[in-house]
Design a protein that fits this description.
This protein is an alpha+beta fold and 254 residues long. It has one domain: 4-Layer Sandwich (Phosphatase 2c, domain 1). It has helices at 42-63, 79-101, 150-156, 162-165, 204-207, 212-219, 225-238, and strands at residues 3-10, 20-25, 30-37, 109-117, 122-128, 132-137, 140-143, 187-192, 198-202, 245-252. It has a five-stranded antiparallel β-sheet with strand order 1-10-9-6-7. The protein has a five-stranded antiparallel β-sheet with strand order 2-3-4-5-8, with helices on one face. Helix 1 packs antiparallel against helix 2 (79-101). The longest helix is centred in the middle third of the chain and has 23 residues, at 79-101.
Length: 254
């Protein structure tokens, strides 16, 4: 399979500092979005550590196939899936270590969502937190990941509806993030891909400001990937841009 991509980030309309980070490693087929949180500039530091750690891990492991793993391999997962999971767990450990050893970074953390493409017709999607992965195909948008957030727990428990969730008072409470503990549970899933699918990785600066039908409508305009990326960011800013906005698109070309 061949893939094309686009990515961009914007601080939004309300914040001077952009605490989001993203990376695109075309040769390794790695795409990552991280949304940092913490006082002062700590969120920016956490998301940067996450992105750089995953980058470094994949660059080093691609040169050394027998690289010593910081974690045991999960025999139920493929080597590619293990690499993605280990890279994220390694990032978590670095963030937690920095947070524990530097008072300026105490309590910092970050969400992360990522894709790893393979040489076959499969990709791996992993995430921690409420940064999301969507898939757009044949005029339909579906959410691939499941938010690790308090509001989503209430929705799944049937205590509130998705409509009520819009005004939920603790909407920003994250149940799982990198840097909260010395280890982290990473959700990972394998998906078979089809030519024409477009995968969207984004921070909640997009998903909180632009609802799914509106995102779907932007994709339906069939613009280039770069134009679609910018249109999504523009839509979030037009709706208030209350948070940093990061968008990465990965299209399956066949």
């Amino acid at each position: 399979m061949k893939y094309t991509n686009s990515g961009n980030t914007h601080p939004g309309m309300k914040r001077e500092l952009n605490e989001d980070n993203f990376t695109i490693l075309e040769e390794q087929g790695v795409y990552v979005v991280a949304d940092g949180m913490g006082g002062h500039n700590a969120g920016e530091v956490a998301s940067e550590i996450a992105v750089k750690t995953v980058e470094d891990f994949f660059l080093k492991s691609s040169r050394d196939e027998e690289m010593t793993w910081p974690y045991k391999l999960d025999p139920s997962l493929s080597l590619d899936a293990n690499k993605l999971m280990v890279g994220i767990k390694f990032a978590n450990r670095r963030i937690y270590s920095s947070s524990s050893s530097n008072a300026s970074y105490a309590g910092m953390g970050t969400t992360v969502v990522s894709i790893l493409t393979a040489d076959t017709d499969e990709i791996y999607v992993s995430h921690v937190g409420d940064s999301r992965c969507y898939c757009y195909f044949e005029d339909n948008l579906i959410q691939v990941t499941d938010d690790h957030s308090l509001v989503n727990e209430y929705i799944k428990a049937g205590q509130i509806t998705k409509e009520q969730a819009i005004n939920f008072p603790h909407k920003n409470v994250i149940m799982r993030a990198l840097g909260m503990k010395d280890n982290v549970l990473v959700d990972i899933q394998k998906r078979k891909v089809q030519p024409g699918e477009i995968y969207l990785l984004c921070s909640d600066g997009l998903s909180d400001m632009v609802d799914d039908p509106s995102i779907e409508a932007i994709f339906a305009k069939k613009m280039s990937l770069d134009e679609t990326t910018q249109a999504l960011i523009d839509a979030a800013n037009a709706n208030g841009g209350k948070d940093n906005i990061t968008v990465v698109l990965v299209k399956v070309e066949g």
